[in-house]
Amino acid sequence: KEYAGSDQKVITIMLDELVTYTKAAKDPEAYQFTKFEVRRTPGAKGDALASVNISPWQVVSDEAKLQGLQDAAENLVTELSSQTGIKEVNFLKDIQSVFPELGFMKDEENKGFLKQTTGRLLVVYWTSTDQREAFARGQEIDKKLSEGSWAKIRELVSAALQNQEVLMGVLVVAAVTDIARMPKFQAQLAPHANSPKQVLEHVLKVCPKVLPSFWCLPNVAKALATDCLTLDFAFPQLVAAEIPPAGLVRIKDMLAQDHEQFKMTSRNYLNVFLTCVFAEMSATLAPQSLDGSIYMNEDRWSEFEVGMQAMQMLEKESVQDVYNIILAQSCKSMGIAFDSSSTESRALARLVTMGSVGDAGRCHLLVEAFKQLEADQRSMLSNYLAADGIVRKPAFTLDGAREFISSALENAEVGPLPAILIILKVCTECAKKFRGILATPEPMITIKLTKLVRFAEQFAGAVTFQDMPFELAWESGAATATVIPKVWIPVRNEVILNSLTDQCQKIASDILSGGLQEKRFKGMLSRVFPELAYFGEAHKRQQEQTLGALLSVYWLLKDQHDAFTRGQDDEDVLTKQSWAWIQDWISDTMRLSSVEMVDAVLVYMAIHALGKIQNFREELAPGFSADLHDAALAHILQGQPELVPSFHRLPGKYRSIIIDSLSVDFQFGQFLQAETVPSDLVVVKEKLQRHGEEGFSLFCFRIFAQMAGKLGDKDLRGSLFMTESQFQRFKPGLDALQELRTLDAGPAYNAFLLHRGSKALSRFASPEHQALVRLLCLGSAYDHARGDALCSAFNELTSYEKSELTKWFTADGISECPGYVLCDAAELLKNAQANPAVGFTEALRALLRVKQKIAYSDMGLMRPESYKAQVILRDLASYASEAGPDPLDFGSADLQVVTHTKGDNRIHTVKVQPLDHDGYRSRSFSCRRCMIDLLRCFAILLFSFLLAASVAGAAGLYLYPDKAEELLDVDMDMPKQIDEVRQFVQDRPRLSSYLLMAVALCSLIGLSFACCCGCSRGESFMQLCCCNVRTAKRLQPSGTRSVSTICSYEPLAQEGPGAPLLSEDGQVLKSA
Length: 1072
Description:
Elements: E1 12-14, H1 16-24, H2 28-32, E2 36-40, E3 49-54, H3 63-81, H4 88-98, H5 111-128, H6 132-136, H7 147-160, H8 164-176, H9 183-189, H10 196-206, H11 212-215, H12 219-230, H13 235-239, H14 249-256, H15 266-282, H16 298-312, H17 319-334, H18 343-356, H19 360-372, H20 375-386, E4 395-399, H21 401-410, H22 416-437, E5 444-448, H23 450-458, E6 470-474, E7 480-485, H24 494-513, H25 518-528, H26 540-557, H27 561-565, H28 576-590, H29 595-607, H30 614-620, H31 629-639, H32 645-648, H33 652-663, H34 668-672, H35 678-689, H36 692-708, H37 724-739, H38 745-760, H39 767-778, H40 784-796, H41 799-810, E8 819-823, H42 825-834, H43 839-857, E9 868-872, H44 874-882, H45 888-892, E10 894-902, E11 905-913, H46 927-959, H47 961-969, H48 976-987, H49 989-1015, E12 1060-1062, E13 1068-1071
Parallel strand pairs: 1-3, 4-5, 5-7, 8-9, 9-11
Antiparallel strand pairs: 2-3, 6-7, 10-11, 12-13
Helix pairs in contact: 3-4, 3-8, 4-5, 5-8, 5-15, 7-15, 8-12, 8-15, 15-16, 16-17, 17-18, 18-19, 18-20, 18-21, 20-22, 21-22, 21-23, 24-29, 26-29, 26-36, 29-36, 31-33, 33-36, 35-38, 36-37, 37-38, 39-41, 40-43, 41-43, 42-43, 42-44, 46-47, 46-49, 47-48, 48-49
């Protein structure tokens, strides 16, 4: 049961206490009865660790122990009855050993019960030993119990305590009464009981040995104590007129029984019962002080005496007559007339008795309020209050009516008339539903008003108390209903709504002008915002958080950094720099400078958590779960706005903004953790965009203020939550929401991820990511526009180009050598962006061409691990600014790399040879260069032929000697030199093959040299051309690559795998 619903795989239960108890056990019956609880370890460990705690109430069957208790009780009673002068301090010491039940209440949660029980035992001690001064020493002087009243008390006690057995029985009743009120005792011993009386009835019948002092009583005292402990009659309700005449029937029936078994008359039996009741009532305020009986002063004794005398008259009088005597005595003390034959007079007398408590001023207020009722209301209330439950049914027991009326009279915002009207409404509803709920008619309906007491105490007068809705919770199979107030009161009165508006706008104005002090602001909240009363005790945490949010608004708008941060940890206090940013945000972005806007903000913060109130949500927005509390509140505000008067009074545009912002299924906490997706922001933008700047401002500021007040339930002295670290986590999300004003949801979400991730990312996600970041830095990208342009240019490159550029940009000169310092790269990218004939993409491809030429020039170079290379791009950067207007000019320019070494560093200077305006390369292109290129081409062809011929001849001689000899034997008319060679080969075929292999090797070396000479300048064989040969125009669109041969032939352009092949006129030939 304790761990039901736990997700822990293993629960550890410590059995130490059970082991010790088991070792000491002697009686099997008592051991089987053992009561215990499983108690979790305090703190987080309690999720998986608990211990078994033996309960203090166990069966006592040890005869020696029981005999010892009986002897100690007899000694105590002897000292009290003989009046030997036992001192109070000794009495308090003795009762600890005589009544082991006192040990049941020693833990912290039951100390109140212990003090009340001790007070009850002291009352028996003071009255039985005639100690008036001790009894009255804590009472106020003007209300102190008189000697005459004390004499009457002594008379009652003396008549009741005729012998030691009765005295012992009364002491036991005083000692065990409150045990039944302890929740754990009830849960373990009588879980199905509905009242303390039923708990005691069950325990005394099933397991009386759990109460050893009771079990030790003689039989007569035991039977007497049983009646006093289990009789379901509340004497305080009788003297307060909370019960109708039918409530006295139980006492009259009790007096009619034969009491011969107790060896006493009915009057003596009643006196014992009244003595127990007197001790219980006198100790009502014992938890406050044990310095005498604070409660039983002169006024309350007078009231008790009226009830006592009335009950003593029950032997001869009817219950109606006795009840009328109580009412008559109450009216006489208040100075008002009473007519027992008048229904209205009896009803008024009962009302006064319930509410005045001997106070003539209160009595007058109740009488005047009763007269202010309309005729039909007064008639209905009179019938309800005057019904006796015997002749006129049903009658009503108004449990808690005295406290309720007292609370209403003490609260000037409630007053007597609204309290009377609520009683009338409750009785009317019960009368309507009575016969539909109960199978058989009952003489009395018990209405519990205890839940109304606190509501009446805390009610603030923004609305009318009598309009409060409520529900009746009926107990199964019983004529008992509990009134559960629904504090959400509908307000449609324009006067009240206008008054609320004026008060809140006055607060807003004072905040903006700086004239409202924090203490006064806090004190006005409950009056200006009636919704704060909706939370109640069950949702105290949400109420405190709401107050924290409202106070945060106050501190933020008044620029009170010290007040906002006074409760924060010194090591994580919100800095003044962050506070300055917040203030600028409020004034420049939020624009919270008008009284109407501040009024709307305060209202929003006062009502934003109402959807978390379970009863409020389930009744008014059924079907909405707890995690949809915002949507539930939006549903309520849209359908029943009068239940939230602060919202109902706002102008229409602010009501619309609040409803739309609440209806957005957006959790800011999830957004900060990137649990949401961009589509969530789409909904936010769609909902708020139509409200303009004010919509986004109210939405964002609500989030900020709500988070600032998140820990208001712990302390309202400053914002404990919005520390510097929390603010830094919070700010990226706030920025992203604000960017929804100008950006679409996707870019705003991605901007948040980039900003949020940059704070936590300790390394690059990939080499390409690192290269892209370096590119952004090289391109001086400090805003999204420039950054997006560079990223797009990078994405236009082929996969191979991206890979090569990434390798170049990520070479660090440490683990990957060399590392390249790209001088003037920023200028290159700047000029490329500014020149429409170039652009970022062609600039990146130019860098790739530079990389290729540098790689060829460095081929085979030995360099140390720390080698660093500088690339001077000044000439290329300048040409990026001048190239054009033809977009092909920049990409077609010839690049030359001049390299020299300085220490360990190599410096590569890039030189540009652009085309002239006719598409020709000029400047330093000379015929000498052209001739060199042609000779190199011829050499390549010659060496290729020699290589192929020599390899073929050597292979033929070596692999097919017979075939080669046949070919050499053929008679042919040849020159002499060739014939000599043929003869040499024929005579020495193996040597000839070796010579041919040598020629092949030399040809290969020559071919390699000829190719490398061209490539040393960064040119491929296909790119060799003459100075007066026009460069062929590119066939492909911008962004593709092609090469040209010296004969003007150009391959079809292709952009990566799968790109289409283009013909000369640009048409697609086929798919690659």
